[in-house]
Amino acid sequence: MNPVVGWTLALAAAALAWLSYGWQGLVFAVTVIVFWLLLQFNRALRVMKNAADAPLGHVDSAVMLNAKLRRGLTLLQVLTLTKALGRKVSDAPESWSWADDSGAAVTVVLRAGKLDSWTLTRDGTAM
Question: CB–CB of 52/85 below 8 Å?
Fold first, then answer.
């Protein structure tokens, strides 16, 4: 979700709760917002912990990773698919790479924090 939309909805919920139930409604709305933020933080930590336990830039199958990728995924969602931190290829554009034991590799390119494109290479040739 777009952060601007999320925070706008949270602010609208807090304002509606205040108008409907006064300070008790506002406390409830803030409690729900904090709970949602804690859930998102916990999810990010779990993905990073799982990725930290795996070898850097390694996936079981680069071909299967290539099949699961789609435009618009965030880096956190890509890390969920790979279960490993990638090797940084370049800063501009932001590129990360994962390889498997057969030598196949997937390089993803992120623009504005979202997956823009990816390339599967096998034996040094791009597919």
Answer: yes
pLDDT in tens, 68-83: 999 999 999 999 999 9
pLDDT value of residue 105? 95
Task: At 23, give phi and psi (nearest 5°).
Answer: -65, -30
* Sheet strands (E) in 9-103: 87-90, 94-99
Question: What confidence tier does 13 reach under pLDDT thresholds 50, 70, 90?
Answer: very high
Q: Is the link from the previous residue into 93 a cis peptide, with omega within 30 of 0?
A: yes
Rg (CA), the chain: 20
E strand or H helix at 76: helix 75-82
Spatial distance between the Cα atoms of 44 and 19, rounded to a whole number of angstroms? 34
